[in-house]
# Entry
Amino acid sequence: MKAILNLFLKSNCPLCDRPANTELCDYCERQLLRCRFPPGVKFSSEVPLCVWGQYKDVLKRAIAALKYNYHTQLAKPLGYGLAETWLSTSWSGISSATVVPIPLHPSKLKQRGFNQAELLAKSFCEFTGLSLSSHGLERIKQTEALHELTPDQRLQEMQNVFNLGKDFRRRSPKGSVLILDDIYTTGATVKSAISELQKSGISVAGVVAIATTQKSVISKQ
# Structure
């Protein structure tokens, strides 16, 4: 009876509609792993930046399926993968760090129904054991689609976008903060978030992201 129930309860892969035993089918999982960066890669950024993979191919499709097609179950393998990568870095020994996801503007949150960065952060924290502050920051400015802007325009657009969220207005984090986002491009979003946190004396240990459009790996550990 259990085997029959399992047969009916199996879901199809959200990326290709093949039968899947987990969130993704075996084929898409293999293709996803091809997007992963090798261990020890580093990127040019103001604070330490840990990224799981290149924003392309199946990883790009998986993030889109999570955000726009409501396949929220994909937050688990993506968040776990990012957690594994972060745990392999030299700065992962920050046991008291609080993870803060980049927030959506309230109108976008109402429209989408969830914040993909928050879902990813929950899985990341579940794997790493770090604490999560879903409302460490709040977004007070509705911004244009950043992918249509130049790097300088992005920086301008992202000025004064965030306020300290209700979690940190109530109580500052005990240690430093890790900012988590789904995609890291020019860094304009996280720079704005870091600036707002630092105004309140909150230290930012680094940034973690599922994917980046950056291609230039500058060194290996």
